[in-house]
TrEMBL record, chain A:
Keywords: Membrane, Transmembrane, Transmembrane helix. Pfam families: Spore_YtrH. It comes from Marininema mesophilum. This is Sporulation protein YtrH. It comes from the Bacteria. The chain crosses the membrane at residues 12-34, 85-106. InterPro entries: Spore_YtrH.
From TrEMBL, chain B:
This is Uncharacterized protein. It comes from the Bacteria. Keywords: Membrane, Transmembrane, Transmembrane helix. The chain crosses the membrane at residues 12-33.
Length: 110, 174
C-alpha cells in the first residue's frame, strides 16, 4: 500500500466512524422526538452505544482486520500490522470525536 | 435509464427529503433542551402523582380497617353478654335461688342481638309470666317481669316475686 492510499484510508475510516456516530445519534434523536422520548437524552445514549459499531463499520468488519493481523504477523510484515493498527486508531478517534461532539452539543461541555 | 427530466424530479424529491431530515435535526437540536425540560417535568409530575395515589390507597386501607374495627366494636356492644337479675320481693330470703332460676330461664338470650330482644320485649315477659319457682323450704314463688333495661351489652331484668301458698296452686284436672 502506497503512502497516499494509507492516508486516504485513514481519513476515510475517521470520517466514516465520525459520520456513523453523528448521523446515528442525530437521527436517533429525531426518532426519539416522534416516539415521545426525550431527544437529547436518547442522542447522548446512542452516541455512546454507536461508538463501537462506528469502529466496526469504518473497518468493514472486525473479522477481516483480525485475519489480516494473523497473515501479516505470520508473514513477518510488521509494517502492515502497524498500518492496520493505525486504521483502527483513526476509526476510533473518529468515533470518539463524534461522541464528544454530540455530548458537547447536548451538555455544552466536553 | 432515467431521462434528464426524470433525473431532475428525483433530485428534487431527494433534496426535499434531505431538507426535511435536516430540518428535523435542526429542530431537535434547537428545541431539544426545552423538550427535555418538559419531559423531566412530566416525569416529576408522574412520580408525584404515583406517590399521592399510593398515599391515598394507604389512607383508604387504613380507613377501611378502622371502619371494620368500629363496626366490629359496635356489633360486639350490641350483643347481650351478661344478664343481671334483680328481684323485687317482700321476702328477703332465698332470693338467690329465684335469681338463678330466672337466669336459667333467660339463658337463651345470651349472645343474642340487643336489637332483636328490644324489638320484641314481650317475648321476655311471656317467658317469665306466671313461672313458679320451688324453694327449698317447700314454698313456691310466682315470678313476673317488672322492668327490663339494656346497659351496653348487659341485660338488666327486674322481676317481682310473689310467694304463693299451696292452696293457691291448683293441679290441672282438679
Amino acid at each position: 500500500m502506497s503512502a497516499g492510499d494509507f492516508w486516504s484510508t485513514s481519513v476515510l475510516n475517521f470520517c466514516i466512524a465520525l459520520g456513523v456516530v453523528l448521523g446515528g445519534s442525530t437521527m436517533g434523536g429525531v426518532g426519539a422526538f416522534f416516539t415521545n422520548q426525550p431527544p437529547l437524552y436518547v442522542m447522548d445514549n446512542l452516541a455512546d452505544q454507536l461508538k463501537i459499531w462506528a469502529l466496526v463499520a469504518a473497518l468493514g468488519g472486525t473479522f477481516d482486520t483480525i485475519k489480516s493481523f494473523e497473515l501479516h504477523i505470520l508473514g513477518g510484515e510488521l509494517n502492515q500490522v502497524f498500518q492496520q493498527i493505525f486504521f483502527i486508531l483513526s476509526a476510533f478517534i473518529g468515533a470518539h470525536i463524534g461522541t464528544t461532539l454530540v455530548r458537547w452539543l447536548i451538555n455544552g461541555e466536553w | 435509464m432515467f431521462k434528464g427530466r426524470h433525473i431532475r424530479h428525483i433530485r428534487l424529491i431527494v433534496a426535499f427529503v434531505l431538507g426535511i431530515i435536516i430540518g428535523c435535526i435542526t429542530m431537535t437540536i434547537s428545541y431539544g433542551a426545552k423538550l427535555e425540560g418538559l419531559y423531566a417535568e412530566r416525569e416529576t409530575l408522574y412520580y408525584e402523582y404515583n406517590q399521592r395515589v399510593k398515599k391515598i390507597q394507604l389512607l383508604q386501607q387504613d380507613l377501611d380497617k378502622r371502619a371494620q374495627q368500629n363496626a366490629r366494636q359496635q356489633e360486639g356492644s350490641q350483643i347481650i353478654k351478661q344478664i343481671q337479675v334483680e328481684i323485687d320481693s317482700p321476702v328477703k330470703f332465698n332470693q338467690s335461688i329465684v335469681k338463678t332460676e330466672v337466669e336459667t330461664i333467660l339463658k337463651p338470650f345470651l349472645n343474642k342481638s340487643v336489637r332483636w330482644v328490644s324489638s320484641d320485649p314481650a317475648l321476655l315477659d311471656t317467658m317469665l309470666k306466671k313461672r313458679l319457682v320451688k324453694l327449698p323450704d317447700k314454698n313456691t314463688v310466682e315470678i313476673r317481669l317488672k322492668y327490663l333495661a339494656f346497659f351496653d351489652s348487659e341485660l338488666k331484668v327486674w322481676v317481682s316475686a310473689r310467694e304463693i301458698s299451696d292452696k293457691d296452686v291448683s293441679m290441672s284436672g282438679e
